[in-house]
Amino acid sequence: xxxxxxxxxxxxxxxxxxxxxxxxxxxxxxxxxxxxxxxxxxxxxxxxxxxxxxxxxxxxxxxxxxxxxxxxxxxxxxxxxxxxxxxxxxxxxxxxxxxxxxxxxxxxxxxxxxxxxxxxxxxxxxxxxxxxxxxxxxxxxxxxxxxxxxxxxxxxxxxxxxxxxxxxxxxxxxxxxxxxxxxxxxxxxxxxxxxxxxxxxxxxxxxxxxxxxxxxxxxxxxxxxxxxxxxxxxxxxxxxxxxxxxxxxxxxxxxxxxxxxxxxxxxxxxxxxxxxxxxxxxxxxxxxxxxxxxxxxxxxxxxxxxxxxxxxxxxxxxxxxxxxxxxxxxxxxxxxxxxxxxxxxxxxxxxxxxxxxxxxxxxxxxxxxxxxxxxxxxxxxxxxxxxxxxxxxxxx
Length: 396
What we know:
Blueprint: H1 4-7, H2 12-29, E1 38-39, E2 42-43, H3 45-58, H4 74-84, H5 90-94, H6 100-110, H7 113-124, E3 130-133, E4 153-157, E5 160-171, E6 178-185, E7 188-195, E8 201-207, E9 218-229, H8 240-276, E10 278-279, E11 282-283, H9 288-316, H10 322-347, H11 358-368, H12 375-395
Parallel strand pairs: 3-6
Antiparallel strand pairs: 1-2, 4-5, 5-9, 6-7, 8-9, 10-11
Helix pairs in contact: 2-3, 2-4, 4-8, 6-7, 6-8, 8-9, 8-10, 8-11, 9-10, 10-11, 10-12
Keywords: FAD, Flavoprotein, Oxidoreductase
GO biological process, one term: fatty acid beta-oxidation using acyl-CoA dehydrogenase
InterPro entries: Acyl-CoA_dehydrogenase, Acyl-CoA_Oxase/DH_mid-dom, Acyl-CoA_Oxase/DH_mid-dom_sf, AcylCo_DH-like_C, AcylCo_DH/oxidase_C, AcylCoA_DH/ox_N_sf, AcylCoA_DH/oxidase_NM_dom_sf
């Protein structure tokens, strides 16, 4: 998969790592796609740990975080995460999956040495999964795309904080060993690190959802009088939203990287099918309708790649990149939805079966258009920027 675009600005070490990740995913991980331990709520933890053990032996576990704790650049990370995404199981095996990858990034940026040793290091080693507890049930009119609506509360009590509330769509909570909990104090949003499971954090249910790639599924959670030591707060009271942005901008882009890899593979499968399948006296690829869909896929995949690396370059400058990550999230998720849809269409009845990963990739990409903010919310945010810039120009 190495391309000229990818090689620009990437060290030989990172390119070699990306190549090794691709070889591992294609040769070792892909055969697990038929494993019966893949459930509707994600692969079992037994299966995930087996895959991580194989990645550890191959030297590609948590490849984006180096042995000294340093992180690859975002451009280098893109090269690696795109390759890990060539199978829906690849990010789990390589420990580059959401929400762990984003949580590791956040803790690496803002965690104290003590918090890193206790919470981050086991995640980097692939020993613990994590969950990010921010979104709240719509039925409660809690925080979703608008985090200012947060209802979960926290208040100090001696050298502890006490947290109460409900959360929903919490990916991987069932089976997680680390939790990042967001709550609202009198000063504003706060973020806490907690050990999981905890009797004060109860899983009400794991929902049945359209996607099935993430271990533990997506849970509805009740938090009742959770006591957290004060030194397990990230930063200070009221800084939670700022830290959330540190996590969310790169995390949006990481989704683009992983699912770009998945759609590259889906397109490979659909292209192979179109070249082999005969209809009306010739291969499907020779029928203009199918050939044009393959051509359109190449265009959308290249545009998604360009947008992903462009946003990575912006993040590598050290700026927050909120606007750029919103643009990338919209452009890439919508482009990949078109790619996945065409792959299903080209394969006809075969495309809606579980005989290949094409059907799963289609479902997962549909959910990706909602992860970390639906397309419409990002467009609305970008439109507000247009208005702000216009007002500034009028005043200047």
